[in-house]
Amino acid sequence: MKAIIIGAGIGGISSAIALENKGITTQVFEAVKEMKPVGAAISIWPNGVKCLNALGLGEKIKAIGGNMRTMAYFDYRHGSPLTQFSMSPLVQRVGETPYPVVRAELQNMLIDHYGKSRIQFGKRLATIDQNREGVTVTFEDGTQAQGDFLIAADGTHSVARPYVLEKALPRRYAGYVNWNGLVAVDETIAPASQWTTYVGEGKRVSLMPVSHHRFYFFFDVPLPLGLAENRETLKENLKNYFAGWCPAVQTLIDTLDPSTTNRVEIHDIDPFDQFVKGRVALLGDAAHSTTPDIGQGGCAAIEDAVVLADILASHSLGIEDCLQRYQQRRTVRTRDLVLKARKRCDVTHAIDPQQTEAWYQELRSETGERILAGMCETIEGGPLG
């Protein structure tokens, strides 16, 4: 059995590894000529870590993961703590540790494990044809590939999605812009082993520890779509948006490097229930594009990979039957993740200012139990518990 995989991102390579672990041959094609990860870092929560463990990558993810022992929210203006608590109860309940990781390091880890020389770069998908025997794809350069089935892990701008759905779906602007990057740990900004977030005015500034004594940082600001902003005005823009915020936030803005800081207008796609058409299946962001507000986008793609491979290895009624079972397993789970992220997005970014203000007040009396319980519920909904 041979799988054609479109996309060498987190979902595509995770699925290639998962399928080959089950004895299924894979061939991976990537549109770009060189991988350049979008976004500086990513959260791999315990549901994602468990899936990586199942793929034989447990020690490798631990080696590149950050040490996130505590979590805290701070008042934006004075920098005073609203709540601060240990992540240990979460780890004990779900049975695994979360790891914030640099996206490029995660990507390289996966590609190195699979074998970079095996991936064909510069292969942009043009058309898909299938029959009862298999699938043929044609790339923009005129070359073709054939396999028994196709996994389309080609991201939020998926070329394969309109083929599967027989229509195009619009991306939905979530209402805010995110700036993100990496800086050296500075404990005047935040403790080295803490996920620290400053909140106020419907905005957010957050830092998470990643490998090699660095912070992954991000700024969120509710803004109109399409503003003419770039790296040349980045610090000036952030200084303006965060005027009056506490000294730690000002220090972070002064410290960051505009040339390596990303500016992203955040979108998602309304959840849909058709991931499969015959022998073609969508996976990762191609199937469930979400905002980053609960940090589950990458984890969901890795979950997809594990579930798909397990079904193909354990069922014998044919490929199309297996892909339908994959769809049944994943649509409910991923719809829940997309909508949870959208709900959290709206509260965090003051879509309803009164609701956001009520959340700020709740944080002042938060012991950690409520926040961690919500995280645990999301984590435990994964395929490995």
Describe it.
The chain has 12 helices and 17 strands. By secondary structure, it is α+β, with helices and mostly antiparallel strands. Strands 5-4-12-13-14-11-15 form a 7-stranded mixed β-sheet, sandwiched between helices. Strands 2-1-10-17-16 form a 5-stranded mixed β-sheet. Strand 16 and strand 17 (280-282) form a beta hairpin. Helix 2 packs parallel to helix 9 (297-314). The mean pLDDT is 97.
Query: How big is the Rg?
Result: 21 Å
Number of helices: 12
The succession of helices and strands, N to C, reads EHEEHHEEHEHEEEEHEEEEHHEEEHHHH
Bin the strand percentage: 25-35%
Unreliably modeled segments: none
Please give the alpha-carbon distance between the first and last residues. 29 Å
Structural class: alpha+beta
| Total beta-strand segments | 17
Helix content: 25-40%
Major β-sheet profile: 7 strands, mixed
Oligomer: single chain
The shape is globular
Mean pLDDT: 97
Strand order of the largest sheet: 5-4-12-13-14-11-15
Pathway: Purine metabolism; urate degradation
Keywords: FAD, Flavoprotein, Monooxygenase, NAD, Oxidoreductase, Purine metabolism
Cofactor: FAD
Pfam family, one: FAD_binding_3
